[in-house]
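User: Can you help me understand a structure? I only have the sequence.
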Amino acid sequence: MVVVMIVPGVHRVEMALRAAAGLVLHLHRGMRNFIFMFQEMQDAG
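Assistant: Let's start by predicting it. Here is the structure, written out as tokens:
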């Protein structure tokens, strides 16, 4: 906590990394669902 007070930029970087990680996880999950749907469509056809 003391380091964050000394270097205010670290908190901003941590927030950015957390947001980027969340976005990547969200996209990965969406991509997996898309591939699953695509495979089901191919099986039906």
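Now, to help you interpret it: DSSP finds two helices and no strands in the chain. Residues 15 and 44 are 44 Å apart (CA to CA). Let me know which part you'd like to focus on.
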